[in-house]
Amino acid sequence: MAHLFRDLSLGHSKRESTPPPLQIKPQPMPSKLVSTDLQSPLGQLASQLTDSDLRLTAYDVFLAVCRTSSSKPLSTSASFNSDSPSLNSPSQNHNQSPNSPALQRSLTSAAARKMKKALGLKSPGSSSGSKKSPGSGPGSGQDKSKRPTTLGELMRIQMRVPEAVDSRVRRALLRIGGGLVGRRIESVVLPLELLQQLKQSDFTDQQEYDAWQKRNLKVLEAGLLLHPRVPLDKSNNMSQRLRQIIHAALDRPIETGKNNESMQVLRSAVMSLASRSDGSFSDSCHWADGIPLNLRLYEMLLETCFDTNDETSIVEEVDELMENIKKTWVILGINEMLHNLCFTWVLFHRFVATGQVEMDLLYAADSQLAEVAKDAKSTKDPDYSKILSSTLSSILGWAEKRLLAYHDTFDSGNIYTMQAIVSLGVSAAKILVEDVSTEYRRKRKGEVDVARNRIDTYIRSSLRTAFAQRMEKADSSRRASKNQSNSFPVLAILAKDVGELAVHEKQVFSPILKGWHPLAAGVAVATLHACYANEIKQFISGITELTPDAVQVLRAADKLEKDLVQIAVEDAVDSDDGGKAIIREMPPYEAEAAIANLVKGWIKTRLDRLKEWIDRNLPQEVWNLQANQEGYAPSAVELLRIIDETLDAFFQLPIPAHPALLPDLMSGLDKCHQYYVIKAKSGCGSRNTFIPTMPALTRCETASKFQGVWKKKEKSQNSQKRNSQVATMNGDNSFGIPQLCVRINTLHRIRSEVDVLEKRIITHLRNCDSAQVEDFSNGLSKKFELTPAACVEGVQQLSEAVAYKIVFHDLSHVLWDGLYVGEPSSSRIDPLLQELERHLLIISETVHERVRTRIITDIMKASCDGFLLVLLAGGPSRAFSRQDSQIIEDDFKALKDLFWANGDGLPADLIDKFSATVRGVLPLFRTDTDSLIERFRRVTLETYGSSAKSRLPLPPTSGQWNPTEPNTLLRVLCYRNDETASRFLKKTYNLPKKL
Q: Could you tell me which of 975, 855, 862, 961 has the C-alpha nearest to residue 918?
C-alpha cells in the first residue's frame, strides 16, 4: 500500500520515499501588517507557544485532515482512485470521483467564488497598485512554473511553511496513515504521532530538532493540561505524570522516532488524558479542541485566506481553501457558530492591522456579524457566550474608541469609513445587549432600542469632547490676542466655533448617523446647547453691569441658540412629536432677558443720576432773565443735553433689542422731565395763593361822619391780612415776576424740545437694524406722555400765578387798597390801568411769544376778578349808589380797552369771553334797591324752596358771581349806599355796619 503514498501530490513532484534532509532554514515572509493594540478575544494561552508555533501546528492539523480519510491517505493526483473514501468533512460526506474537487484541484479553474461574492471581498490585484497573489489565476503576468498549481501548495505558501518542513510532515503523515486502519485521523493525537515518527536525522540540525520537539511537547501541554476540552479531575494522576514528563523533556530532550521507554511512558500519559470522553459517542481524541487553544489554531488557519502579497485581499481560491479548512473542525472541536465568530474576528482584525484602508474587509466583518447574531439567538452555550462576549466587546471597544470621539477620528478624507464602523459597532452592541446581557432579558424588548441608544451616546460623547476642544481653542485665541484692542471675549469666540461645529455636524455626520437615530442632528445640537449653557449661565450670573464684552457674549449666545434650535426643528420635522422632546432638552439661555436686564440696569443708573442732578442743581437755579437770549433757565438746557446724550448712548449700545427696551427708557426720561417741571413750578403759588380773603358781610352806614376813619382802619386791616398770605413771596427774589416768567419760558422750551427728541428717536430707530415696521406704527412707545401735559399744566399754573400776583399782590395798593375806596368818583381805575400797562410791557418783553397771549389773557381774567372782588367783597370802606353805576361801567370799559389796545392787544372775542361775568353783574348796580330786594327774595325762594318762606336763609359765598345767584344779589345790596338796603339787611340778617 506504500505505493499509494509515494505520489506526494499536495503541490509536489514525485520524490524518493526517504529523501535526504534539505538544508533549508525556514524563511518567513515579511508581513506588512501593522501592530495593533487589539488583544485577541479568543483567549490567551497559558503555555509559551509563539504565533509561529501555532501556525506550524495548525498546518500539521490541516495536512493531516486533508491527506487522510478512514484508514487510507488521500491521493491528490489527477489519477486518484475513484473508489477512495471521501474526505471526512463536517459539512459533507460523499464519495469523490477522479474529477471531483480535491487537493489536486487546479487553481486556474474559473469556479465560482461564492464566499468572496457573498462577503463583497476583492481579489488580489483588483485595486490599482496591488500586488498579485501566488494564486491570482491566469493572466497574472507571472511565470506559471512559479505559481502554485494545487491547493496544498497554496496553503503551504499562505502559512509560510518552508518546503523542507512541509516534506517532513508529509512523510510522517504517510507513516501515520499506514497505522490508521479503520480509524479516522481525529482518533489519534497528532503531536504524539509526529514525535513517534520523526527522529533527529529528519532535521537539518540539532537546533531545529530541539525546537520542533519542544513545540510539540508544549502543544501537548496546552491541549491536555492547560486548556483541555474535558476538565481535569484533581484525582487524575496522569495529568501530574504528563506534566513531569513534559517539563523533564523540555529541559532534556527525549529521543523520538523510536518505540523506546520514554516514548511509551509519554504515549501512555497522553492517551490516558486525550481519550477521556466529553459526553459524545465518538472515538475522537481531545488534544486540540479545548478553548482557547482550538480557537487560536483555527485563527491561524483562517488567516491563510488572505493573500500574502496583498494582505488586504482574499485569495482567489478562498472557497476551496475554506472547504478544506473546515475539515479541521473534527480535530479542533469547531462548529459553525465558532467558525462564524472566529472568521468575523479575523476579518475585523485584518482590517485594523492593514491600516484600516480596505473597507471591503470591514463590510465583510459586518456581514459575517449578521451570521453571528443569528447564532447568538439560537444557543445559550456558556463557553460560546463567553467567547462571543469577549470578541464582541473587543470589536465594540475598538469601534467606540473611535465613535465616542468621532470628530477626532473622521474627517473629509475618511468619512466614508464612518458608516461601516458605526454599523459594526451597533451590530456588536445589539448582540451583546439582546443576546448576552441578562439585564435586557428582564426588560420588555420594546423598551430598549439598542442602536438608537448607542448612537445617542456616541453623539453626546463626541460633541462634548469636541466642545471642550473648541473651548480650549477659543481660550488660547483670546490669550493670544489679549493685548490687541479688538480682542474678542472667549465665550463670543466659543459661540461662533460651536455654531460652525453644529453646521459641520449637520452636513457631515448627521446624515450618516440618521440611519440609526432619526433625530441625530437634534441630539447633536441639544448636546452643544447644554455644553454652552453651562458656560453662558455661569457668565450671566457674574455680570453686574452692561459692558461691550458682556453684550457681545450675550448676543453671540442668542444667535447660537437660535441657530441650534433651528437645526433641531428642521431635523425633527418628520418625527412623531415634532421634536418636542429635543426642544425640551434645550431650555433657553435667557440671553435676551439677560441683555434686557442689563440694559434696564443701565437705564436705571442713568435715570437715578439724572434725578440726583435735578435735586442738586434745580434749588441753585436763580431763574435769571439775562442767563441767555431766549430767557429760559440754564438748568433746562443742561437737562435736555443730558437726555439727548442718554438717548444717543442708548442707541449706541450693541444690543439687538433697542425697540423692545426703548419704552423703559422713554418712560424713565418722561418721569425725569415731569420731575423737573414739578420742581420748577414748586413754591411759585397759584391763583388762590394771591386772591385775598373776602371780608365778612356788612351793611353800609350811610352818611356817617366817621366814614373816613373806618376807611383808613379797614384799609390797614385788609393790607395786613393780604400781606400775611403772600409773605412767602416777598422775601425770595426767585419768585418775582421776571423769575416766574423765566420759569414759564423754561417749561415752554422743554415742551418744544420734547417734540424734537421724539423725532430724533424715530431717526435712531430707522437706523437700528433690529427695528421692525410695527415699531414705527406704534407711536405711543416713542412719545413722552407725561412731560407735555406736565409742561402745559405748569405753564398754566405759573401763568395764573403771574397774573394774580400782579393784580392782587404787586398792584394791591391801587386795586384792593385804592379802587373805589371812599367816594367812587374820587378813586377811579386810572392808577390801576397805569400800573397794569407797565407790567404788560414787561411781560411782552420777557415771555416767549408762544405763551405771551396766554399770560396777558390770565392778567385780564385776574383784573376782571379783582374788579368784581372790589365791587362785591371790597369791605365796609366801599359803598355804591345807583348813580355810581355809570362810573363803574366807564371804568370797566377802560379796563377792557387797555387789553384791546386799539386792536394790537387781545382779540375782541377773547376779551368779551372773559369779561362776560363782569358785564352780567354790572347792570345790578344801576337797578333800584326795591327791585334788587324783590329779585333776591324770589331767587332765594327758588333756590331753597318752601323752607325759606318763614325766614330767608343767608346764602353762602360761592365766588361764582352771577346776576341770578342769591349771594351775588345780596352783596350788591350790602354795598348799596341806600337806607332801604341797610334796613332790609338789618331786619333779615342783622348784618353789622362795620367789621
A: 961
Lookup: cell for 118? 457573498
Averaged over 42-50, what is the pLDDT?
86
Residue 295 above 80 pLDDT? yes
Could you tell me which residue, 38 or 710, shows the higher pLDDT?
A: 38
Share of the chain above pLDDT 90, in %: 46
DSSP structure class, residue 28: P
pTM across the whole model = 0.69
Q: Which amino acid is at 701?
A: E
Whether residue 642 contacts residue 613, with contact meaning beta carbons closer than 8 Å, is answered with yes
CB neighbour list of residue 533: distance below 8 Å, 6 or more residues apart: 587, 589
Lowest mean pLDDT among 465-479, 480-494, 618-632, 957-971: 480-494
Cis peptide before 907 (omega within 30 of 0): no
Burial (Cβ within 10 Å: 0-12, 13-18, ≥19) of residue 80: buried
Q: Which of 137-141, 208-212, 822-826, 971-975 has the lowest mean pLDDT?
A: 137-141
Question: Sign of the CA dihedral 494, 471, 458, 415?
Answer: positive
Q: How far is CA 865 from the centre of its chain?
A: 73
Cell of 184: 479516522
What is residue 971's predicted lDDT score, i.e. its pLDDT?
92
Which residue, chain included where needed, has cell 369771553?
A: 913
On the question of pLDDT at 585 being above 90, the answer is no
Output phi, psi for 724, to 5 deg.
-65, -30
Q: Is 58 helix (H, G, I), strand (E, B) or coil?
A: helix
Roughly what angle, to the nearest 10 degrees, separates helices 966-974 and 979-989? 120
Q: Which three cell numbers stand for residue 466?
A: 469636541
846 vs 24: CA distance, rounded Å: 130
**Residue 127's Cα: distance from chain center in Å?**
47
Taking 3-state DSSP, the helix, strand and coil percentages for the chain, each rounded to the nearest 5, stand at 65, 0, 35
CA torsion angle 101 104 105 108 (round to 10): 180
First to last CA, the chain: 171
pLDDT tens digit string along 507-546? 999 999 999 999 999 999 999 999 999 999 999 888 888 8
Q: Which cell numbers in the block locate residue 860?
A: 385780564
Residue for grid cell 436763580: 622
pLDDT grade, residue 698 (50/70/90)? Answer: confident
Alpha-carbon gap, residue 438 to 94, rounded angstroms = 43
Amino acid symbol at 788? P
906 conformational bin, left if phi > 0, alpha if psi -120 to 50, beta if neither: beta
Q: Going by C-beta distance under 8 Å and a sequence separation of 6 or more, which residues neighbour residue 144?
A: none
Distance CA 968, CA 396 (A): 110
Exposed / middle / buried, residue 378 (Cβ in 10 Å: 0-12, 13-18, 19+) = exposed
Alpha-carbon distance values, 896 to 804, 830, 910 (Å) = 17, 12, 11
pLDDT computed for residue 806 by the predictor: 93
Query: Can you say how many angstroms the Cα of residue 206 is from the centroid of all Cα atoms in its chain?
Result: 75
Q: How far is CA 102 from CA 80, 106, 442, 483, 720, in A?
A: 10, 9, 50, 80, 146
Predicted confidence (pLDDT) at residue 94 exceeds the cutoff of 80:
no
Given a contact cutoff of 8 angstroms between Cβ atoms, the answer to whether 292 and 248 are in contact is no
Percent over 70 (pLDDT), the chain: 81
* Closest alpha carbon to 152 in 309, 303, 325: 325
| The three three-digit cell numbers of residue 917, written as one number | 361775568
The answer to whether the CB of 519 falls within 8 A of the CB of 513 is no
Neighbours of 689 (CB within 10 A): 17
Q: How far apart are CA 79 and CA 488, in angstroms?
A: 86
The model's confidence at residue 716, banded by pLDDT at 50, 70 and 90, is: very low
Mapping DSSP onto H, E and C, the string for 801-842 reads HHHHHHHHHHCCCCCCCCCCCECHHHCCCHHHHHHHHHHHHH
Beta carbons of 342 and 302 less than 8 angstroms apart: yes
